[in-house]
Amino acid sequence: MHLPLSGLSAPTPSRRTLIRGIGGAVALGAGVPLLSACGGSGTASDPKTVTVGSNASDAVPKKAFADVYADFKKQSGITVDVNTKDHNTFQEQINSYLQGTPDDVFNWFAGYRMQFFAAKKLASPIDDVWAKIGDNFPEAMKKLSKGEDGKYYFVPMTTYPWAVFYRKSVFQQYGYTVPTTWDELIALCKQMKKDKLVPIAFGDKDAWPAMGTFDQINFRLNGYDFHVQLMAGKTSWTDAKVKAAFDHWAELLPYHQDGFMGRTWQDAAQTLVAKKAGMYLLGTFVAQQFTNKDDLDDLDFFPFPEINSAYGQDTVEAPTDGLMVSKAPKNHAGVLKLLEYMGSPAAEELYLKGDPSVVAASAKADTSAYSALQKKAFDMIGGAKTLTQFMDRDSRPDFTSTVMQPGLQKFLQNPKGVDSLLASIERQKKQIFATS
Amino acid sequence: MTTDTTTKSPEAASVPPPGAASAPKRAARGRRRLLTRRDRFTLALMAGVPTVLHVALVWVTALASIALAFTTWDGIGFDSIRWVGLQNFEQLFNDNPQFWPAVQHNIIWFVVLILIPTPLGLFLAVQLDKRIRFSRVYQTAFFLPVVISMACIGFVWQLVYNPDTGLINSLIGANTPGHYIDWIGDPDLNLWAVLVAASWRHTGYMMILYLAGLKGVDPSLREASALDGANEWQTFKNVIFPTLRPTNTVVLVVTIIEALRAFDLVFVFNKGAQGTELLSILVTNNIIGESSRIGYGSAIAVVLLVISLVVIVPYLVATFRKERRS
Questions:
Q1: ipTM for the assembly
Q2: Cα gap A423→B186, rounded to integer Å
Q3: Inter-chain contact A28–B264, Cβ cutoff 8 Å?
Q4: Is the Cβ–Cβ distance between A280 and A268 less than 8 Å?
Q5: Would the pTM of this model clear 0.90, i.e. be above it?
């Protein structure tokens, strides 16, 4: 739920955000979905305007989107009226926002979270847009943009992979090589410990980073299909395969940084910056913490090592952000034009100029302006056989936030109690998925 | 309150009967209507608007959440509300690993607040009441945390407790691998760490309440006990403290409320993760979000409501009984 979008740090919700959120809850409790306060204004019926509800409230993406929309206006003569809301608030209120009078187009995430609103009929299918932009995207992206009914509901803009980050100079200094298998990873951790390094930097105060570790271990060990089934609530959490994933995690846990429950990912990243830690499993947004240019150039990453040779390293976790269309857009023709434009490589290139912390979702975008890190990320995603989003985007968010986040934290505190924990997760999962 | 009751008030009765111009039929029937139509309209507005707001924002929401506690609802469209009877409560009591710790933590919260900052606040108040030098300075210093919002207090104490860069770990060197103290993450520690911050604020609050109470103690009582040869402790125990009874009641109620509504400090501190779960945070986590569990969250809210009523109803009954007697 608190996953940073587009690799931009999600600030801890301010008190105001919190209160607004609670206000939303109260309104919902009363059964009055009146929170669409900043929905489409009176100008929405104007054929020369398209309204966009945006969660890009951080300065960098906000500016980058503004540049893209300015360019769109130049080309089409259609003005994009952007309603920006605080990133976390947007997420908390999306429910009531989409039921009220939402903007024509809104920023959202690919995967289960997109499918959820599509299935609830709160979004419009956009197959006609995809008929024109389809060639711009690789197969994995197409798959990500479809609802459960097989129709397209999403135009991907940007993405970023999760991987194991390290500093080239540290690996050079100690003569480490990049591990490609589980055994090599464990051996490297042991060696790092001997060399008085923290093998794996880690902070789980925000409760979501642990999900990333679980995802990697699970799809490496049990494969993409099993992972997706598990996330969709179709496989039991008490399955021996899940237990095996937790056993692997327990084996790796002693090499994680001490005191991770009280540490944010930003603080954990600082141990990598300071060369006190050898590795760090996170999304590419970790680069934001490398404010010094030399440090940033020293940063590199490798895909999470292979555990089961049947699956190798063919799955990449790459949360993808993009746009969706609300249930009844007022300017339908304008919306189609806008999304067609946003799905073009040119729009993505322009966006990335303003926000270089992510990479383009389109396979056709020009990568010549990319940094080495971006180029590597782009290739990694392009070469993936299958893409996952992230636990809280691949599964029901109510399940991940109320059951998995505390559940994984419990496991981290007490890896030995995994059996009863998995039984408890399975019981709660059944209850949540039963309500659909 | 309706307009009819207002017409019977003595002030209203003293107003000379207006509206003589109205039809004789109406005048005959409405002799007791002493207010003009405009007066009645104004009164209706003054009494009606707050009543409507109160009913809509307090009663309807409270009753709606009680009703929703027996349903499942994801918050999308009213047709997705489904009646499930007691299922939410069964799940809550049997399957939710966070529920009982949350209840327990709310109770611990109350016990700690009543046992530590409350006596401390009383102690400080008694000391300051003696008009020692710089009394105002101390008073301000102790009261300052009360002025700051809980959310800010959470931020400030995070800086103190941060395991890597925080004040405590930096001073005692507990931020190196091997000997690490995770004040925020360790489930055996973090509740107490938060409670220190909560007590820090609560002490000032209690101090100011007791200080006000002490100002109301009749000086002749002290004089009398001094003449009787009582020492300071005896005076306090047998004379001053008994006269603080009304203050103690207020303190008790305030502390119970503080314990039940504990939320912001913990939410800022670590979002109610392992070791610091609270009922209010469970409610929030279940209700706020993209696909919320509004029925389930309401069930937790109902539990919180019942606990509050168990505490508040006896207090109100006692208070009203006292008022009626006097």
A1: 0.78
A2: 24
A3: no
A4: yes
A5: no
